[in-house]
Amino acid sequence: MEGAISAIREEGLAGKLAVVVNELTVESRSALADDVVTMVIATPVRSLCTELLSLMTASIGRDEDVVPGQSFLPFDIHTPENI
Description:
The protein has about 80 residues and is of the alpha+beta class. The chain has three helices and three strands. It has a three-stranded mixed beta sheet with strand order 1-2-3, with helices on one face. α2 (about 25-35) links the parallel β1 (about 20) and β2 (about 40). The longest helix is centred in the middle third of the chain and has 15 residues, at about 45-60.
């Protein structure tokens, strides 16, 4: 992500491309503010950890190997307007 942001800045392509990156970092936040990046999709780390711990503790003491199914977690979308 950082390399792509750097290349877009160097080539003067800011605002000319629709660029979506993952995770809101110092670099991606700056790129959003400078119109280098269009959108950031961020992983909900806190929710992910909570869900993982919940599934792990629920599986303790079960005799069978049961896969609990899928867990769908909402993700965060950041745009220049909401940073």
